[in-house]
Design a protein that fits this description.
It contains three helices and two strands, in the order αβααβ. With 145 residues, it is mainly alpha-helical. Strands 1-2 form a two-stranded antiparallel ribbon. The chain is rod-shaped and about 145 Å long. The termini are far apart.
Length: 145
Amino acid sequence: METTGRELQIMYFMQQEDVAKAAPARSISRRAAQRRKQVMQMKRLIRNSIFTLCAVILLAVSINAISAQATTKEEALTHTYKYYKSIEIAKGESLWTIAEAYTDGSAAAIQDCVKEMRSINSLKNDTIKAGDRIIVPYYSNEFIK
């Protein structure tokens, strides 16, 4: 059977219509695939951003906690408590030698301690006698109950 020219034209147009129908379907599926890919990339970006943000917050909180602990330890080591002790004066002792024994030995600390001992014990001058009892201030890093 031979086909006529008119039949060939009809077949050609039918093929063109099939191609035209298939082309939008292909382009739609390509666009849909591209859109799905973009959505997946966006989701991945959001997930990674949230993860990074959580990691930064956790790091900041950890650093803050560590520095707070270090400060607390330093304060515990450098914090001093003031105490008072009643002592009996031995032969040859003076307010100055007693102050030297109960301070860090610096001149200012000794002088302050002597002034405070005079005040606490109601002394008018540095004169003390062996056998007398006086109250002496001293400092310690340990908390005594």
